[in-house]
Amino acid sequence: MEPVTIIGGGLAGSEAAWQAANRNCKVKLIDMKPLTFSPVHNNADLAELVCSNSFRSNDLHSAVGLLKEEMRRSNSLIMQIADETTVPAGKALAVDRNRFARKITASLVRHPLIDIIREEIFEIPPGTSSFTVLATGPLTAEPLAESLTTLTGRDRLAFYDAIAPILYTESLNRDIVYSKSRYDEGRGDYLNCPMDKETYLNFINELGDATCVPLKSFEDIKYFEGCLPVEVIRSRGDDTLRFGPMKPVGLEDPKTGKPPYAVVQLRKENRQGTTYNMVGFQTKLIYSEQKRIFRLIPGMENVEFARLGSIHRNTFICAPELLQPTLQFKNRPDLLLAGQLSGVEGYIESAAMGLLAGINSGRLTLGHPPVIPPPETALGALINHLTLSEPTKFQPSNINFGLFPAWEKKVPKRLRGQIRAEKGLGALKNWQREEKI
């Protein structure tokens, strides 16, 4: 039996390798690190997190919370290790990024059916009787991206994703910064930097006049709306930040007993709490401007940064025209696609597509038909987004309840998340039993 070849060792590739190997298939997992690094990767571990350390809400009645639970019930390695490496983040699931990547790598290294090969692949392998999963991510290196363009017969699409800064906790002024989760949910896992109106207006004026990293002449700006740079949000109006990532509602300052005019929230990056992430502050400002402007935030006057923000290009295909619901290419059934390249957005969504690609590449290798998750599940909702969207309007998406089947009858808003979760998990259980997954 030929092994399943998986190209790319990020979240999607790591999950795909785990799923295929756990179906008694030999796996070759190929990753270019540490021989070559993308512009935003910097260590040799697999499943390295390069943006936020948050996997977003862990609430079962949210769409992303439901997706996490479906993955847990599908023996997801990403979810297992995420649950083992959590850091406090209120209702969100956030991880210690270094421990997370180390433990993922160790689990894959120990698996007797997984062979990890460190080399760069420059072109998509030709069609064979064996199966390949392409999971090289949104920063696919140029030669392989060109090979993908040749395969698809069309120019690849691109949008831009920005990274938020990480700062050292000890450099914060704790006489100003206070611990509190919104509406007192959780244990006060976030640090909060409060602003009065005058400080806020000065901050957004400086932000609006700041210098950004110039784009290359061939680059076309297509930001993902769920991850806009902070300066782009500010450009849409004076109050857009105050009603977005700097929303003060539910974050009363203990010194005044009242919510500030605006607030910057910081979330733990590691279990020790030595570094924090600026929530919602992904940016394309040049480094010197980041230091100058972010030090205008109360409590961050003398802040030191562990990592400054940056912007990078993300690549994805027009999935509705190119992919089957099994994640196989229509013109190359031996080749499957996983992760953000497929047109999903977000850590968990990318890993979920790796899970499905791993299941199906394993099943195909063993001579079983591939499977498609039911539309009532979060997994199925993502597949429907990839394959049933209007091709001319297709854009990457996070999981959200708008991707699920329409309600057959009116349901009270307060019950919708609960009912979606019950239907989704019930459909998942039946599907797994019927398909022997």
Structure description:
With 437 residues, this protein is an alpha+beta fold. Helices cover 31% and strands 17% of the residues. The strands form four sheets. A six-stranded mixed β-sheet has the order 6-2-1-7-17-16, covered by helices on one side. It has a six-stranded antiparallel β-sheet with strand order 10-11-12-13-9-14. Helix 1 (11-21) runs parallel beside helix 10 and helix 2 (63-72) runs parallel beside helix 10 (347-365). The protein starts with a strand and ends with a helix. 49% of the residues are buried. The mean pLDDT is 92.
Short characterization:
With 437 residues, the chain is an alpha+beta fold.
Query: What percent strand?
Result: 15-25%
Give me the number of helical elements: 12
How large, in whole angstroms, is the Cα Rg? Answer: 22 Å
pLDDT below 50 for ≥5 consecutive residues: which ranges?
none
Strand order of the largest sheet: 6-2-1-7-17-16
- Gross morphology is globular
User: Do you know the CATH architecture of the largest domain?
Assistant: 3-Layer(bba) Sandwich
How would you sum up the major sheet? 6 strands, mixed
Number of extended strands: 17
Tell me the count of domains: 2
End-to-end distance:
20 Å
CATH topology of the largest domain: FAD/NAD(P)-binding domain
Within CATH, the superfamily of the largest domain carries the name FAD/NAD(P)-binding domain
Q: Please report the first level of CATH classification, the CATH class of the largest domain.
A: Alpha Beta
